[in-house]
């Protein structure tokens, strides 16, 4: 099941590593064949590998040596030039393309059986008649029940070529015999717009989790829906968004900026400058825009925030962003693997580079979250370090700074309740989602007549449910985790997880946003006519 909410700050490095894999790409065409001419440096490496392959005293997997060599070289360049092994290319490509071929379910291995959490709306499984709670015991006659298969192995059993059929045998509560469904595999979107709904009568909310090929199309559909619902203001939530395609970020900015406004420019080591300008295509140029960012908003997210801030458009709300101002290009290495190599820097319209320093090495660079936490800047905007030498001024006279992320116009401190490490760890590890599923399984029919709107307003998680969750963690999952200090936060997360499994379509975000300080700040700014737009 896709996890769609706040990544665990403790694992910031891992989250940003994902962003590196998918972040900031300007041009994915490999035009580098002409560069690979013979020279002594390359010959030296090739000869060493040949010596090891043919003459070393033990058998060695020279492919692994090459991988180590490539990684070692890249680690000496910058933190965002990375190697993508051949075995990872498909999943990386799917993530960036924004879809894959499958049957369209999210599932949970419950009591050694693949159990459907919910079907993807309008997907192959929903059309075939599968429902949440169904247990898949065979696929094309191959028994899946009780087998010691990883989630990756199970996915392989269900994925296949587009248009091919898979016959599933399903056990469903209330039926004496297994049911059979023929499901035609199809293109399943990897959603990058998590939620789009109205916060108030005129303020719409859009949450984007990354910038993939499909993101602009999703975003445009969401924006159009909200405009039809009466939105004259948009809260664009880019928190925990590690980035993606630069071109997609430009298209989204274009929806808000007037014609011919500079969005950004890039510069390579030869000094070549390429500029990107807004066009006449934008549909929300007269609307009011708020952009929500935090310390995990990186790359393309920062392009959006920086372009709007430097053009005096909208209000940036939250905490200082990650600070990635480097652009990568993907280059194939000939064996199915590839390298994402940094080829230029990007600059915001005022000329700011928001790239953080990496002169102390990659380890220090990716541990920057801890430095911010220790310094106190996540709780107090006065603790944000700025350099007067990197001061820039917008056309309307607002002072902005380069050198390490986008500093928001309106600061919102870290919520140490909703964003504490215990609760976010429980969510990230799947404990909350798994518990919510098992809770639903006790009496799924009790929710069949409850609308999403009624659930959001009236359904409450009781103290008894929280006690059950504690038992679930200690007895079923054999952990020693205690969350007594965060009981109310746990209730909200459990309610959100149940909403997601019952209703999908952004219900998770709608629940969590009820207790979100940053969203509430945006609502207050929207209601205040003197806000910074």
TrEMBL record:
Residues 89-159 form the PDZ domain. It holds the Pfam family Peptidase_S41. Keywords: Hydrolase, Membrane, Protease, Serine protease, Transmembrane, Transmembrane helix. It comes from the Bacteria. GO terms for molecular function: endopeptidase activity; serine-type peptidase activity. SUPFAM superfamilies: ClpP/crotonase, PDZ domain-like. InterPro entries: ClpP/crotonase-like_dom_sf, PDZ, PDZ_sf, Peptidase_S41A, Tail-specific_protease. GO terms for biological process: proteolysis; signal transduction. One of its GO terms (cellular component) is outer membrane-bounded periplasmic space. The chain crosses the membrane at residues 7-26. Belongs to the peptidase S41A family. This is Peptidase S41.
